[in-house]
C-alpha cells in the first residue's frame, strides 16, 4: 500500500490529473481549506487498488482554478461545493450550478 503526497501548482494540475487518469486511478475526493496566511489549499485524492495519491496546492483569494470535471466527471460535485462554500472560482465545470448547489445563510461561509 502506497500513499503519495505531491505539492503541485495550479498550472500543473491538469497534467498531473491526466497522468493519473491514464494510469487507471479513480477520483476519491476533492476538498479545500483556508490557511492561516489567508490563502486556500486545495487537495485532490485519487486511488488505485490500495494505493493513494494526493495532489495539493494553494491559491490566493480571487484566483481561479481550472476544473478537472472533463477528465473525472464526478468532480463537478466537489467543484460546485468548493465554489459555494469557499467562494473559489472554478472554471469550465461540466455541470456548473453557479453558486446554487447549497443554500447557505451566508454566501461562501468558509471564505
Chart the SSEs and their pairings.
Blueprint: E1 3-7, H1 13-22, E2 26-34, E3 40-48, E4 51-59, E5 65-66, H2 75-86, E6 90-91
Parallel strand pairs: 1-4, 5-6
Antiparallel strand pairs: 2-3, 3-4
Describe the structure.
With 111 residues, this protein is an alpha/beta fold. It has a single domain, classed as 2-Layer Sandwich (Beta Polymerase, domain 2), CATH 3.30.460.80. Helices cover 20% and strands 32% of the residues. It contains 2 helices and 6 strands. A 4-stranded mixed beta sheet has the order 1-4-3-2, covered by helices on one side. Strands 5-6 form a two-stranded parallel sheet. Helix 2 links the parallel strand 5 and strand 6. The radius of gyration is 14 Å and the shape is globular. The chain starts with a strand and ends in a 20-residue tail after the last strand. The model has no long low-confidence stretch (mean pLDDT 97).
Amino acid at each position: 500500500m502506497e500513499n503519495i503526497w505531491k505539492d503541485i501548482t495550479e498550472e500543473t494540475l491538469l497534467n498531473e490529473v491526466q497522468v493519473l487518469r491514464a494510469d487507471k486511478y479513480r477520483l476519491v475526493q476533492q476538498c479545500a481549506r483556508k490557511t492561516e496566511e489567508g490563502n486556500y489549499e486545495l487537495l485532490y485524492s485519487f486511488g488505485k487498488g490500495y494505493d493513494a495519491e494526493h495532489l495539493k496546492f494553494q491559491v490566493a483569494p480571487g484566483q481561479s482554478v481550472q476544473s478537472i470535471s472533463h477528465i473525472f466527471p464526478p468532480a463537478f460535485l466537489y467543484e460546485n461545493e468548493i465554489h459555494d462554500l469557499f467562494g473559489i472560482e472554478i472554471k469550465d465545470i461540466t455541470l456548473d450550478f453557479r453558486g446554487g448547489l447549497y443554500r447557505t445563510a451566508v454566501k461562501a461561509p468558509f471564505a
